[in-house]
Write a structure and sequence with these properties.
The structure is a homotrimer. Helix content of chain A is 53%, strand content 16%. By secondary structure, chain A is of the alpha/beta class. The relative contact order of chain A is 0.20. Chains in contact: A-B, A-C, B-C.
Chain lengths: 201, 201, 201
């Protein structure tokens, strides 16, 4: 079975950009595959002809959503290659409530080596969301709301790490620090590779 | 079995006021009963003729307190109606230590749909405590101590939510925002009602 | 079996100084023994002729490290006397990642009565590290990095406390407040002694 690393971050922190660039730079040595939890779940839904798009998944009953989440988890855990799993620590729902992105049984099955949280200052996150033309209808959250989401993300990440015993890495991705963020991501992947083989001095 | 929602918040955040008003506004549609964990435990103590008042409960042995806490939990979990359970994430003891208000087995038995944390700025909480004539002897904690309690409350709330997989909602209840706080509380109750029936788009 | 209390804090918070002074002041009444988790593990390593010094422990395979950690845990849990266990909530590794200092099974076996976190302002921690002549080669972390470590320490501490149901006490140890910090530590030990015997009013 391959090593699995969970990558999370609030929308606008730059998770996907940092993740993709780190993957490119480390590909030759470290050989990870990037997969998205949401996409895996959507594929399962579409294969079962349950829904046509991602938004429609939310209309499924909670029991069915849980069942699909669990099936996606089992599929991901069985992948033979090393995996960077793009997902969420805290999913912010329509009502402003947070839902933990991982349950105890998901954590146990996925058995991650690390959780990497990509983060940025509230002001930067807010600015990036405003500039995101792909989602023109998205409500722009206040600075305070983004700050709260960041705090809850960290608290969930620490709770997940405490439960599964895996590493927790927080990477700051502010303007002008993108290369540093990618370097830190790659360094973390290297550290995990070394730690797994027992040489981390 | 009814749906159970845990409502918590540091003293002075306005938990009871927001909770009671949200209950009034939502009563016609949502039908919740408010119960207080402390009162349930006290009732059990008094029925067993163990103590005469709430303060005396603290003099019981830890084993007996735990036994009573567990009996209260089982009673609450068996209630057939929907319940808003007024309790604490972090109980601040006389020594300045925090005690988690919920244990893993309590969480498992209660199986809450959500934890709603009513919060406010440190300065507001401090001001409200000063004005609380019902507790003239209470020591007024410093801004820093209140801030620490708020941080620990959130961390426990996230740990509880991560363990039980339930929603976590934080509601700000600052001066001039009471109606907004109540609206958000009611919206969260509606969201939970919809989510349970599988329609949250 | 004796009572066990976990004492943690980031390097530079003054954990050992506060711990030692509190132990001296409370010794007559409370009778605790101070032990360090790291030293216990090192002793096991050296007894098994696996390593010569603490740094070399990191070169052991993860499986062997885990085995030694578990053996140290079992030894500590079997101590008949009251124990103040000097250890870490979040261990900061070379890669900048955090590793939780306690796993669920360690917590279950140790069954601590409390976690005491010794803390200080970021600026103070940074200053103390700069003045620490015993470790001249240590990289001095930025204010932001120390702040992050403090946040993660608290989040782990809350997750550990939520899991094991034990008390959590945070003690501030800033310049000019050393005596207050020691007093609070001793008060917490007294509170735990009283709580265990069932009289905490």
């Amino acid at each position: 079975m391959g090593k699995l690393i969970i990558v999370a971050g609030v929308p606008g922190a730059g998770k996907s950009t940092v993740l993709t660039e780190a993957w490119k730079r480390s590909e030759k040595d470290l050989k990870y595959t990037i997969i998205s939890f949401g996409t895996e779940m959507l594929n399962l839904c579409q294969a079962a002809e349950l829904v046509k798009n991602r938004d429609a998944m939310r209309n499924l009953s909670p029991d069915l959503q849980e069942e699909l989440q669990w099936r996606a988890t089992k599929q991901i855990a069985e992948r033979p290659e090393n995996t960077l799993l793009d997902t969420h620590c805290a999913i912010k729902t329509g009502s402003g409530s947070y839902l933990p992105g991982l349950t105890p049984r998901m954590l146990e099955r996925l058995s991650p080596k690390a959780i990497i949280l990509v983060d940025a200052h509230e002001a930067e996150i807010r600015g990036r969301r405003k500039l995101d033309k792909s989602r023109p209808l998205r409500t722009i959250e206040s600075y305070e709301d983004i700050s709260e989401h960041k705090v809850i993300n960290r608290a969930y990440a620490a709770a997940f790490s405490a439960r599964s015993g895996c590493l927790l890495r927080i990477i700051q991705n502010n303007t002008g620090e993108f290369d540093k963020a990618v370097d830190e991501f790659v360094e973390t992947l290297k550290y995990i590779a070394q730690a797994s083989s027992g040489a981390t001095a």
